[in-house]
């Protein structure tokens, strides 16, 4: 029997991806108690501040100096989907928009022609640790969408659809549908929340799917078939072991799958968790330099020139690592002044 697994890959912090996906980072930091200023109540001695990716004591400051995270930086030519399973992210951008999201929320941003933003990880709790677990996924934009207006959408946890499926033995699977519709075994279609305007990945014909799948111990669940010739990758990021049809699989690996075949996934151990990334390849040339993703070297040079000239609207905030205070709850303030909460 032919295996549905086309390729196996090891998982590090930055996970392997395939067109239309450019990048997937898994941040899993066990941050300590906060210090009252949203930073860690711990010594930063021995860390390479500004470039701290080593993981001393199970956490990293990344590019932050006082608060962990990623101070102001530009993007052009792609989309980011940031799914925060645990902990919080403080957002600020060059359009004057801002937000705090987390505990299951997703921010979907189409950078388009250019935006600056910061993504800080505020340690809001002073009386207990502040763990954070999140995925940041980068999706390419085709040439016709590279220069659309930037915008972001909030997919709040409370509104994000979740499908619960029970196998023949009564064990449960849970599918969180961030992007791409999911059809239950009973035929019911679970439809995701709306992406930002001008999102290529949000168009149905591109069959982009981003799902988080949780399987109880010994549960089985069938990943439904999709169209042929899609890139479909399943990341096994928590658990122990199991099988995809007849093939043995283990935690800490990614599996490129045949998209037109359904796959029966059986969890052999403790609770198992998977991330699915699926989409139709764009199939265009990719020229990338850091936060800019274009089709040609000339377009990359233009992106750098435009950023140097305009700063993509400038930076309207007092700090490059802008945060929103210890007491602030989850919210989103958009460029037009509209404020949204879960």
TrEMBL record:
Domain Pirin N-terminal: from-to ranges: 64-139
Pfam families, alphabetized: Pirin (PF02678), Pirin_C (PF05726)
Domain Pirin C-terminal: 213-313
InterPro entries referenced in this protein's UniProt entry, alphabetically: Pirin, Pirin_C_dom, Pirin_N_dom, RmlC-like_jellyroll, RmlC_Cupin_sf
Highest taxon of source: Bacteria
Family the UniProt entry places it in: Belongs to the pirin family.
Listed name of the protein: Pirin family protein
Organism: Marinomonas ostreistagni
């Amino acid at each position: 029997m032919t295996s549905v697994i086309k390729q196996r890959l090891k998982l590090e912090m930055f996970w392997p991806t395939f067109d239309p996906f450019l990048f997937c980072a898994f941040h899993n930091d066990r941050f300590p108690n906060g210090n009252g200023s949203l930073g860690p109540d711990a010594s930063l001695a021995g860390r390479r501040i500004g470039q701290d990716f080593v993981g001393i004591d199970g956490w990293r400051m990344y590019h932050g100096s006082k608060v962990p995270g990623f101070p102001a930086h530009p993007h052009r030519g792609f989309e980011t989907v940031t799914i925060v399973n645990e902990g919080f992210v403080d957002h600020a951008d060059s359009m004057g928009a801002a937000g705090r999201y987390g505990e299951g929320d997703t921010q979907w941003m189409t950078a388009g022609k250019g935006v600056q933003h910061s993504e800080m990880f505020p340690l809001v709790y002073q009386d207990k640790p502040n763990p954070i677990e999140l995925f940041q996924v980068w999706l390419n934009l085709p040439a016709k969408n590279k220069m659309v207006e930037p915008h972001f959408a909030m997919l709040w946890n409370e509104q994000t659809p979740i499908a619960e499926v029970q196998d023949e033995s009564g064990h449960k699977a849970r599918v969180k549908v961030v992007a791409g519709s999911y059809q239950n075994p009973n035929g019911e279609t679970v439809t995701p929340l709306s992406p930002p305007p001008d999102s290529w990945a949000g168009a149905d014909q591109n069959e982009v799917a981003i799902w988080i799948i949780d399987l109880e111990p010994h549960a089985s669940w069938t990943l439904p078939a999709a169209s042929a010739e899609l890139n479909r990758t399943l990341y096994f990021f928590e658990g122990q072991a199991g099988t995809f049809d007849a093939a043995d699989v283990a935690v800490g690996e990614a599996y490129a799958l045949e998209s037109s075949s359904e796959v029966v996934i059986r969890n052999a151990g403790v609770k198992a968790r998977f991330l699915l990334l699926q989409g139709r390849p764009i199939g265009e040339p990719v020229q990338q330099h850091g936060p800019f993703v274009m089709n040609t070297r000339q377009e990359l040079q233009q992106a750098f020139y435009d950023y140097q000239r305009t700063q993509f609207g400038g930076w309207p905030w007092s700090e490059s690592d802008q945060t929103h205070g210890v007491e602030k709850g989850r919210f989103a303030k958009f460029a037009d002044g509209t404020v949204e909460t879960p």
